[in-house]
Amino acid sequence: MSTATAAPVDRLLYKPEEAAEALSIGRSTVYELMAEGALRYVMRGRSRRIRRRDLEAYVDNLEPVTH
Questions:
Q1: Along the 67 residues of the chain, how does pLDDT read in single tens digits?
Q2: I need a labelling partner for 5 at 20 to 30 A (CA). Which of 18, 32, 34, 66 fits?
Q3: CB 48 within 8 A of CB 42
């Protein structure tokens, strides 16, 4: 007997908690980034969602540490 497993979904919108996990940072840090405008988000009713492209743009704009 085999059980079917669903393929992982390629998300377009992330909850702040999911975005935090994807970025390997804390949930409160994601909320701080959204509040200061560093991480863009959209509103769906009363819920905040972060578009995948906005997560990628945030990461692309991070400055690497140079020594």
A1: 556 666 566 889 999 999 999 999 999 999 999 999 999 999 999 999 999 999 999 999 999 988 7
A2: 18
A3: yes
